[in-house]
Amino acid sequence: MLILWSSKLQPCPKMSKEFIFALLGPALFHTIGHISACVSFSKVAVSFTPVIKSAEPVFSVVFSSFLGDSYPLSVWLSILPIVFGCSLAAVTEVSFNFQGLWGAMISNVGFVLRNIYSKRSLQNFKEVNGLNLYGWISIISLIYLFPVAVFVEGSQWIQGYHKAIEAVGKSSTFYLWVLLSGVFYHLYNQLSYEALDEISPLTFSVGNTMKRVVVIVSTVLVFRNPVRPLNALGSAIAILGTFLYSQETSAKKAKKDGGEKKS
């Protein structure tokens, strides 16, 4: 983001105390969501975590309802296959353990609360686009995470570094993988925010659903994770439920926007 701002490829938003304070909560939940997702990835098969993270709409509906939002019956019904599919996938997962499951579940909670409070706390900063919003949330998240990482794992960094180099084989390969991981992850989020500004929510939800399919299939092919038939069925049902939820919430939003325009 600093490169984009300094090169003026992306206009830097005006900073103020109010803007920073509005981001403190969303950035904290953003940090919790990413840490717990990484914990989940480290404990179970890489293909399992995206399946559990497809249950994020369930948490979104529940938490939003507690905070005053209302949803039609069709939305509530659309989350049932998500719950069933995730449960079936978890029960039949070869690499299943509770640390991996809870990591993915906590990640869902963190990201849902980030989205809810981002929307609620940034009503007065509508001039800030999605990319700049994500950029500043990530920067504040880094400030949150760095001292915690030093305190919790600082004594293990040197040992872990040498173990990682030994596992990879070359230090240059290790640096390259870390660099590519960070760059591609940022580009993924950047393109997601930019795409959401240019296409309809329904089109975006279809692409997001296909993303989960591609991630799961790719990790199975690359890492050769064993997948039982019931596990694959549960994953498919969960992803289908996520797609149905996206359609229903998009229809709800379109109806709401249409009502506001008429009024």
Automatic annotation (TrEMBL):
Sugar phosphate transporter domain residues: 1-246
Protein's UniProt name: Xylulose 5-phosphate/phosphate translocator chloroplastic
Localization annotation: Membrane
InterPro entries reported for this sequence: EmrE-like, Sugar_P_trans_dom, TPT_transporter
Pfam family, one: TPT
TM segment ranges: 71-91, 98-117, 133-152, 172-188
PANTHER family per UniProt: SOLUTE CARRIER FAMILY 35 (PTHR11132)
Species assigned in the record: Tripterygium wilfordii
Entry annotated with the keyword Cytoplasm: no
Keyword set, alphabetical order: Membrane, Transmembrane, Transmembrane helix
Domain of life: Eukaryota
Keyword Amino-acid biosynthesis: no
Coiled-coil segments: none
